[in-house]
Amino acid sequence: MSIELIIGILNIVLISTTPLVFAGIGELVTEKSGVLNLGLEGLMLVGAVTGFITLVLTGNYFYSLFLSIISGVILSGIFAFLVLNLMTNQIATGLALTIFGIGLSAMLGKKFAGTPIDGLNPYYFIVISFLLVFSVGYFLSKTKSGLIVRAVGENHNSAYALGYNVIKTRYLTIIFGGVMSSLAGYYISICYAPMWQEGMTAGRGWIALALVVFATWKPWRLLVGAYIFGGVAIMQMNLQAIGVKLPGQFFNMMPYIATLIVLVFISSNKVRLKLSAPSCLNIPYEKNS
Amino acid sequence: MQSIVEFKNIFKSYPGVKANQDVSFNIKEQSIHAILGENGAGKSTLVKILYGHLKPDSGEILINSNLAVINSPSTAKNLGINMVFQHFSLFESLTVAENLILGMNENISLTKLKDKSKTICDKYGFNLNLNSPISSLSVGQRQSVEIVRSLLNNPKILIMDEPTSVLTPDEISKLFKIIKNLVKDGLTVIFISHKLEEIINLSDYVTIMRNGKVVSTISTQNEDPETLGYKMLGYKVSKAKHESNINFSQEIFNIKNLSTKSKDPFTINLNKIDLNLKKGQIFGIAGVAGNGQKELMEILLNENDYEFSGDIFFKDLNINNLSTFQRKSLSISYVTEERLGHSAVPEMSLSENIFLSMNHKSEFKKGDFINFEKINSYASNVIKKFNVDTPSYNVKAGKLSGGNLQKFIIGREIMSNPELLILSQPTWGIDAGSEAFIKKTIVELSQKGVSIIIISHDLDELLEVCHQISVLYEGSLSNPLNVEDINITKLGKYMGGLFD
Question: Of the candidates A148, A162, A269, which has its C-beta nearest B73's C-beta?
């Protein structure tokens, strides 16, 4: 293998993995506060199509980025209202959000499928994604606000008893996660592809979810995990190009198998489970009255 | 001294329960004011209203003669009110330092926190390691963290909800010294308890509550436990008495050299436990919560797949490898600590709960079907004989009050004619009437030749009903003490681990 080929592969890995980093780090913060949002795939698709349509109609990158982010705020805001105020089941609501996002993005984007655009340089986003992981890591481990997020995810009743607003904290983390997913989608349709095609996120939202567990809720592990998952996906194409006869499905399932192994590993031991997963994850919070 | 807190006509009800009815009284500045009442008298509800944790249906609270609208704990903290909770509000996986920071109103750096907490610890004699995670601390240490966390905010009023229920006698006297020093330095302490001696020893004033209402607010100076107890309950409770100095002979249950080895830091390893129980004997296992009671109970039940060495014998039969149901079939009965979720399924009716515990008995089945006729008659017998206050056996277990459900559960096990009954915290959190009834039932049962093991944190209860008591400390069980020869000082030392 020549140096150029290796650099080329690394470059592709770098470019193709970034959406996983964005969506994953957002979901990590949401889950740290005790909320499981399974709607990443839907959020990404809507973020992708909103950004794309705005860019086609206005030709302005700033507007398109802005509206893509707004779509994430609105959708995750609705999700937050449902699970936090109406206390709906987080899993069912998240799934509904994904299904809704798939349908909505397909409907909105129908006329725009295949429209050519000038894409943005992905490297801006790649740099931002790295900075983001480090700032989230710093935020969670070093700042008081980050400590509050962890406290709310660890024991929401105690956090309330100490005077913290559990609902508000979770609104913020859910919306942060929603915006990150939109950015991931925006990156796919504006930088990575750049084009719109129905269902173009191709399951990355689910991989990002798996990634958070794989990383045992630690930001730097999430970054490493994202590049392992992304690398496996790229390796598949290259190996097939070289002529290795392994079915593509085998590589597609690698992230999930890896996540399963991690899950079995952490849950085989009560202590590890207690120390890594936020204790209040997926447990509805009912305010005393 | 002027009043720092004034409760004015506080009302609070839940569906079916009037938790607070027209509660009015004043708390004087720089005093220790106790609130006394049974479980369910409305003490906790009242202080939770003061702390902004609950909203009253109507009524007013005045702080320093100004009307205070306390909507949330954060408003309360801004008014200088802090609370130490009965079930701690700590974060297990976070460190002591992180827990302290979370409790503070202001934002401060770690070094400043260290200075501040050190000043408080030195002044009042707490001993905290800021870097250890909460999960590694004993219950007493956890309470210290809670108190220091409250003090860091320079509160004017400190509420303590049943702070002594988890402490050894030594730790309690230490805590009382600390509280008295705090009050000298200007703090007002609201102290909730149902233990009469404690209130008389510690507090200046006491408000007695019964069924959500204030009975009276008096100075504790001239009170003694009996009169105070009568005011709390409204009736006199007779103590359960057993005959002392019986010579028990026939051995029925033996634990020999039982040890566990678990790497899980959240469980306590049992260490060479020996226990010898005779027919008709009541044996108490005392100790502060978290010293291995849970693990011991789980091994007696064989609920968890513990790896253990040593042997357990029931009437000379080694039962190490027998399942819970096999043990039950040998006429060993269990009453576990958690009433709802462990002893009984809250969403199921009383009769269904009978079946769940008795399904090793063929008489309750017709082939593979449930024999409801038998079960219902068994349930109504339990309800009748054990004074369970419920309209019928079709009521869901979760609807019963703690005391009634506990009577039902204990009745359910006793009616199956056990030879050995193992109880964990049998009277925890229930009303005094049910408590007296259960104690009496236990003593009567032993007189019929049933052997009984009681695991409890409540020393008074054990001293009242047991023949012998051992203390569990960090997984080791002390030598048994005859109740007649026990004094509290010795027991206190044992509970602090000073035996051998």
Answer: A162
Q: What is the pLDDT of residues A26-76, one digit of tens each?
A: 999 999 999 999 999 999 999 999 999 999 999 999 999 999 999 999 999
What percent of chain A is helix, strand and coil (3-state, nearest 5)? 75, 0, 25
Amino acid present at A218: K
Specify the CATH architecture of the domain B3-233. 3-Layer(aba) Sandwich (3.40)
Tokens coding B456? 């409890």
The pLDDT tens digits of the residues spanning A248-272 come to: 777 777 777 877 887 787 777 766 6
Closest CA to A102 of A45, A187, A47: A45
From CA B16, how far away is CA B399, in angstroms rounded?
A: 10
Note the pTM of the prediction, 2 decimals. Answer: 0.80
Q: Does domain B251-495 have CATH number 3.40.50.300?
A: yes
B chain contacts of residue A275, beta-carbon cutoff 8 Å: 93
Distance between CA atoms of A148 and B103, rounded to whole angstroms?
A: 10
| Straight-line distance from the first to the last Cα atom of chain B, in angstroms, rounded to the nearest whole number | 51
CATH label of the domain that carries residue A91? 1.10.3470
pLDDT at residue B235, rounded to an integer: 76
Please give the DSSP secondary-structure letter assigned to residue B108.
-
Best of B86, B102, B269 to disrupt the A interface (most A CBs within 10 Å) is: B102
Q: What would the two tokens of residue B362 be?
A: 């063929």
Q: Are B198 and B29 in contact (CB under 8 A)?
A: no
Q: Report how far residue B391's alpha carbon sits from residue A288's, in angstroms, rounded to the nearest whole number.
A: 29
What's the CA angle centered on A222, arms A247 and A235, to 5 degrees?
25
pLDDT-flagged residues of chain B (< 50): none
Confidence label for A288 from pLDDT (cuts 50, 70 and 90): low
What the block records as the tokens of A72 is 């994430």
**Is A154 in Cβ contact with B89 (below 8 Å)?**
no
Separation of first and last alpha carbons in chain A: 67
CB-nearest partner of A147 from B83, B90, B98: B98
- The SS3 of residue B485 is helix
Give domain status of residue A284, yes or no.
Answer: no
HSE-up of B327 (CA within 13 Å, CB side)?
A: 23
Domain that holds residue A206: 3-276
Q: Collect all residues of chain A within an 8 Å Cβ-Cβ radius of residue B268.
A: none
ipTM score above 0.90: no
Rounded to the nearest angstrom, the gap between the alpha carbon of residue B147 and the centroid of all alpha carbons in its chain is 19
Q: How many domains, in total, are found in chain A?
A: 1
Cβ–Cβ gap A289/B264 under 8 Å: no
Q: Report the residue from B73, B76, B102 with minimal CB separation from A151.
A: B102
Residues of B in contact with A150 (CB under 8 A): 91, 94
Kindly report, as residue ranges, where domains of CATH 3.40.50.300 are found in chain B: 3-233, 251-495
Among the listed residues B318, B268, B303, the one whose alpha carbon sits nearest the alpha carbon of residue B139: B268
Which residues sit opposite A146 in a β-bridge? none
Q: For an interface test with A, which of B55, B91, B101, B267 has the most A Cβ atoms less than 10 Å from its Cβ?
A: B91
Q: Residues A112, A53: contact at Cβ < 8 Å?
A: yes
By the 8 A CB rule, do B418 and B358 touch? no
pLDDT (average), residues A14-21: 93
For B71, which residue in chain A has the nearest alpha carbon? Answer: A289
